C-alpha cells in the first residue's frame, strides 16, 4: 500500500515538473501585458519609431536582423498577439523578399518552441491516457499530420497561435510540425511583407495599412486553393480504401 502511494506521488511530481515550462511561458505572457510591452506591436509604434529603426538598420544591419528575428521568435513563442505588425516591419525595413525570409525562419523557430513546450507539458501526458477521445484525435491527426497542418497554415481563418498549440496537444512529429509550418506560412508572410514594404505611403497618409488584405479575393481564394491541394493525398487515401473495401465485398459475394 505504502509503495503504491509512493509511486503515485512520484508520478504526480513527474507530471507537475512537465508543467514547469508551460507555467514559465504563461508567467512571461502575464508580465508582458502587465508591463504593457504589447503596445509596441502596433502600426502607431512602427510609425513613431521609424526614423530610429531606419537609422539603426543603416548603421548596424546584421544586428538589426538578429534583434528583429530574436524579437519575432519571442513574440511567437509566447503567443503574444501582434506578430503581423512585426511582419509589416520586416517588409518595411528589409524589403518583401528578405523580410519574408527572416519572418518565415523566425516564426518557424518561435512556433516550434511553443509546440515543443506544449508537447512536453501536455502532449505526452495525454498520449498516456489510453482510451480517451484525445488519444483517438491524436491517432487521426497523426495519420495525415503534414497535410492537415499545411491546410491549417494556409487558410488565414485559423489563428497562428492556436495552430502552434493544437499539434503539440495532438503529439505530432517534430519534423512534421517544422516542415508544415515553414512552408505553410510562406504565402501569408509574403503578403504582409509586401504590404509592409509600402508602409511609407501609409505613414504619409496617416492611414493604417489594410490588414484584411489577406481576405481580398485575389489572395484569399488562391490560398484556399493551395489548402485544398494539400488535402488531395488524404482524399486519395480515403477513395483508395473505399475502392479496396468495395472490391473485397464483391469478391466475397462472388465466392
Features:
single chain, 255 residues, mainly alpha, 15 helices
Notes on the structure:
There is one protein chain. With 255 residues, the protein is mainly α. The chain has one domain. It is built from 15 helices and no strands. Helix 6 runs antiparallel to helix 7, helix 7 runs antiparallel to helix 11 and helix 9 packs parallel to helix 11.
Q: What count of domains describes the coordinates?
A: 1
State the oligomer: single chain
Question: Radius of gyration, rounded?
Answer: 23 Å
Number of strands: 0
N- to C-terminal separation? 59 Å
Q: What general form does the structure show? A: flat
Count of helical segments? 15
What is the residue-mean pLDDT, rounded to a whole number? 85
As a percent range, the share of helical residues equals over 70%
- By helix and strand content, what is the structural category? mainly alpha
Order of helices and strands: HHHHHHHHHHHHHHH
Main sheet attributes: strand count, strand direction, barrel closure:
none
Low-confidence stretches: none
Quick summary:
The chain has 255 residues and is mostly helical.
Amino acid at each position: 500500500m505504502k509503495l503504491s502511494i509512493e509511486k503515485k506521488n512520484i508520478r504526480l511530481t513527474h507530471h507537475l515538473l512537465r508543467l514547469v515550462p508551460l507555467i514559465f511561458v504563461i508567467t512571461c505572457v502575464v508580465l508582458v501585458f502587465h508591463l504593457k510591452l504589447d503596445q509596441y506591436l502596433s502600426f502607431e509604434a512602427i510609425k513613431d519609431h521609424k526614423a530610429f529603426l531606419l537609422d539603426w538598420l543603416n548603421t548596424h544591419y546584421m544586428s538589426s536582423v538578429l534583434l528583429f528575428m530574436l524579437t519575432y521568435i519571442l513574440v511567437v513563442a509566447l503567443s503574444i498577439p501582434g506578430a503581423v505588425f512585426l511582419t509589416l516591419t520586416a517588409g518595411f525595413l528589409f524589403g518583401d523578399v528578405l523580410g519574408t525570409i527572416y519572418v518565415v525562419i523566425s516564426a518557424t523557430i518561435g512556433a516550434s518552441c511553443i509546440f515543443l513546450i506544449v508537447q512536453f507539458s501536455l502532449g505526452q501526458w495525454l498520449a498516456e491516457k489510453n482510451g480517451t477521445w484525445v488519444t483517438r484525435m491524436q491517432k487521426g491527426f497523426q495519420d495525415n499530420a503534414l497535410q492537415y497542418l499545411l491546410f491549417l497554415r494556409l487558410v488565414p481563418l485559423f489563428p497562428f497561435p492556436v495552430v502552434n498549440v493544437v499539434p503539440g496537444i495532438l503529439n505530432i512529429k517534430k519534423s512534421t510540425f517544422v516542415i508544415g509550418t515553414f512552408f505553410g506560412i510562406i504565402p501569408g508572410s509574403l503578403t504582409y511583407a509586401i504590404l509592409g514594404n509600402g508602409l511609407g505611403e501609409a505613414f504619409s497618409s496617416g492611414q493604417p495599412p489594410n490588414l484584411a488584405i489577406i481576405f481580398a479575393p485575389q489572395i484569399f481564394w488562391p490560398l484556399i486553393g493551395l489548402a485544398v491541394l494539400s488535402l488531395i493525398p488524404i482524399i486519395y487515401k480515403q477513395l483508395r480504401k473505399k475502392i479496396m473495401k468495395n472490391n473485397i465485398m464483391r469478391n466475397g459475394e462472388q465466392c
